[in-house]
Each structure stands twice: as C-alpha cells, then as structure tokens.
Design brief:
HNH endonuclease; 2 helices; mainly alpha; 18% helix; 87 residues
Length: 87
C-alpha cells in the first residue's frame, strides 16, 4: 500500500507533524478557523456582492455626504458593524 509522508499542522506557526489526511494536530483541532460565510451567505452572496460593488464602486454613505470614497462593503441601511444581527 502506498505511503504518504507526514506534513505540518495548518495552524499558524505550529510545526507539529501529522498524518496525511488530517489538517490540524491534536492541540489545534478545536481551533480551526471559522468560515467567512455562514447561513444564507454561503451560496450566492459572494458573487452578488462582487457584482454590486463592480456596478456601484463608491461608498453609499460617503456619497450622501458628497465625499468620494471607494466602497468596501455593500451598503446597508444600518451598517453591519453597528448592527451585526442585521445580516
């Protein structure tokens, strides 16, 4: 049966060698990074967000104040930073 060499744990700066087929060592299994998109944001949101920002490159809040600023998030009535539950 073919044999694969051990490789390093994917946790930042961890050099622990682990078996092939695993991503994290026993110390870091519980510390896997969380996914960026959750819930309804998994499927269509990244593409929709990119399309919206491509067609609306300026910040909506700044535009209202007559300031020209590049958009870094899709406009929300209330910013996600202020009201994260509004996703």
């Amino acid at each position: 049966m073919p044999w694969k060499p051990k490789h390093s744990c994917r946790y930042s700066l961890c050099g622990e060698l682990i078996e092939s087929g695993q991503s994290y060592c026993y110390k870091h299994k519980d510390k896997k990074p969380k996914r960026e998109y959750t819930g309804d944001y998994k499927r269509g949101w990244p593409a929709l967000r990119s399309m919206y920002l491509k067609h609306n490159p300026l910040c909506e809040d700044c535009k209202d104040k007559e300031i020209v600023e590049a958009a870094i998030e899709v406009h929300h009535k209330i910013s996600i930073e202020v009201w994260p539950e509004g996703r």
